[in-house]
Amino acid sequence: MRLVSLALRMSTCLLALCSVLLLGTQARGEVFREDFNDNSIDPTRWTVEVWGTGPQLAEAHQQLEIVIPGSASGTDFGCKLASNFLLRGDFDVQVDFRLLTWPFSNGVRMGMGMDEQGPPQQGGVERTSFGQDDFPWEPREVYLVGFPDGVHGIMGTSDMIGSLRLVRSGATQTGYYYGSGGWVVIGTGPASTADVAIKVAAWSAYEFMHWDVFTAYDNFVVNSGELVWPGAPVGACCLPEGVCLQGTEADCRTAGGNYLGDGIPCDPDPCGSTPTKATTWGRIKSGFRSTAK
Question: How is residue 24 annotated by DSSP?
Fold first, then answer.
């Protein structure tokens, strides 16, 4: 597909640039990180859903890529990646995005939010391109929030790379984008207080302008919150280098860490004041396999 080959060349050039530009958006004391560097979606941590005809989602080139071709069709169509873990109580999550092939006013929405069954009904915090007959009185390229009380906070933008953030506090959620050296509030609305999964997605419907669109997500981070994993219990694991990650006791032992117990969170950090660095279970396991040979 010509779309993919062109966009991949752009992606290679942008990857290093985005890492530098967005470095300041990373929060300390994070409890979960997915950098999509393994080029393979871990089915124990994520669930992929595609609806309609044409859209594609894959972890490749050290990012999560979503392609919506101009030929895509259906009442609704798109892709999402939803967490298998749930977040309980207050939480703070963020993700970086790149718009690699993104025609002006193309009709595609991309965003991060609390997951629901099927196509997104409430997008969460979005970077959206309004298409034909979609909010015709508003700017075409925007940030917005889509919460249970509707779409609001619409503000024009020309950003092709950036970061989105979603914070739940009690029964309220707030969406942000990163700009001008800090987080900017887009809007606040009501939120479910139940345990929820988090999704990142790209989708469209009647407003789609039938142009090829190629987007990517990177650096998904849970800055704070309690992770609840269905099945095997998880807790805080203190790794030898001082990093705290939540995982199962078996994963922790495989990585040479000290498992502190089921349900123990990484926020506040229980692993002491040792300097930390960002990592993932995929990297840790890879390193362990290498030293075990």
Answer: G
